[in-house]
Write the structure tokens for this entry.
Amino acid sequence: MSGASSSDTVVATLLERLRAMERSDAAASMLPRECYTLPAFFDYERDAVFAHCWHCVGRAEQIPEAGDYLAARVAEEPLLIVRGTDGEIRALSAVCRHRGEVIACESGHARSLRCPLHFWTYDLEGRLIAAPRMGQQTDLEHLKKVTRLPVVRCELWHGFIFVTLDDQAAPVAAGLSKVEPFWENYEAADLVGVPPVPSDQILPWNWKLHFENFTDAYHPEFVHRGTHDFAPSNHPSGGVSFFPMAPGDEAIIRTVPLLKADGGMTSEGWGDPAAFPPIATLSGAQRERLAFVMIPPGMTIIFAPNAIAYQLITPLSALSTTAANDRISGGGWLLPRTTLSLPDFSARAASVRTGGSKIWAQDLPVNLGMQAGKQSRFSPDGIYGPLETTLVQFNAWLLRKYLQTPADSAPTKSARPACASA
Ligand code: FES
Ligand SMILES: [Fe+2]
């Protein structure tokens, strides 16, 4: 008991410091290091941030047929994203209404959703349709009438399925309106999704560090020598561009130029000629740049001249994160159908994975080092340079999320994983 209350006190003290940062417009300083290390603060984030955000859980074309479903976890809630017989996609709680077993932890296909424990069975819209032996003591017809898996909000955005646990959240498209111009001309190319391959690898750092590494325009020149020089943040004819944040924005964006139009991912990192051919429908400007879009807390997107590449990120704990694709496992691409049907597509995809792996191999040690730095008593308050605008924007986004939480939204006890690996 005393442990729980001291956790609450630590979080309350941290929130007070964050409030002071917001008052002094100090998003330009790093957040307190404890925001990256404390389990109690992660629990707070789960309830105050993750439970109120939109989370991408996959693409509509991954569940084309009635009965196809994706298993997902959002703010530690097990969910099933199901294509119904009416063609609609719904997000349902995966927690059985009998005694709370999780119905499925893997994606799949079924005519109905059957709990593995006592075989209570639900239709594809979550209504109870069978409960073996329950009719002996209970009015089964009434039980069926009143029992349904809770439905969670679910919206599509450019074919991506987003869910949120917050009924009051603004529509997903409203928060991502800033990204719209970057979609122009891509969908005219008849894009097909190649889902990201989930990785088993636990990334031993806080989820915020993962995003900071993605969005940091300062480090490629030093960390990514040989793999990122083709997409420089500094360039005589203009380097990185940043985009202002408006209230309600849920995306943070930067672009960098390419040294040559139509370049892209090669087996050596960003370069030319790219492994995937250029997308013919794009404008001249789009063929000369990369646009890096982060949609915290769970998604990044890169708009390149040859592909859209996305990664889905799951914060697991204060010190662990997973990603699909993790830049080694591959996938997470939207590609023109013509690219996918190239006879040597597999070899090209392998090149992209190789190039991504080389960049990732450079990021790994610095991410580990940054997490270790957060654990240090000598961790600095920090100062941001001219190439780190997106980090300041991320801090401002985080402060907004942390501090908009109602005062009574106290952190709750961490939920146990539904499908803990053996
Ligand atoms: S817990 Fe699901 S059927 Fe019993
Ligand atoms: Fe990097």
Observations:
- The two ends are 29 Å apart (CA to CA).
- The chain has two domains: 55-157, 177-402.
- Residues 407-422 have pLDDT under 50 and may be disordered.
